[in-house]
Amino acid sequence: MSNNTGLLHGLKVIEMSHIMAAPTCGQMLADMGADVIKVERVPGGDDTRRFGEGVQGDSAAFAMMNRNKRGLGVNTKSDEGRAALRRIIAQVDVFIENYRKGAMEHFGIGWEEMHEINPRLIYCSVSGFGRTGPYAERGGFDLITQGMSGIMSITGEGPGRPPVKVGAPITDITAGILSVVGILGAVTHRYETGEGQYVDSSLYEAGIVHTFWQTAIYHATGEISQPMGSAHPLSAPYQAFPTKDTSLVVGAANQNTWLKFVEAIGAPELAEDPRFETSNSRMTNLDALVETLTEILSHDTTTAWLEKLEAAGVPAGPVYDVKEMSDDPHTQARGMIERVPAATGGEHSVIAHPVKYSATPTSIRRGAPLLGEHSREVLAEYGFADDEIQSLISSGAIHEPEAEAKAAE
Question: What is the rounded distance in angstroms from the CA atom of residue 210 to the CA atom of residue 98?
Answer without folding.
Answer: 21
